[in-house]
Amino acid sequence: MTYMMLVRLIGVPAAGLDELLEPIQSYCLIRDLPPLTIPVVKQESGLPGAGFTGAGASDLARKQMDVFAFDWLEHGNPQRDKLDAAVHDWPSNG
Description:
- By secondary structure, the chain is mainly alpha-helical.
- The protein has helices at residues 3-10, 17-30, 60-69, 72-75, 80-89.
- Helix 2 (17-30) crosses helix 5.
- The longest helix has 14 residues, at 17-30.
């Protein structure tokens, strides 16, 4: 899914998308989970944006498969306080 597709799906301006993806990325990094934001890519290159820290280009396909194979329902949905704490502990967007 491209960033612009995600923008259209959730109705958030493109400029605000990083604020929504950063807590998810930080949460996954801290808990050593598959990088849940990796399926979102730039249309031009098919790669995640510059702020993505979950995998390099050479690992992209494998890391995307890890995301799809992981049992996210078993893991559960982190509440906002856990996502906020993750960004505080490991800011991943600058």
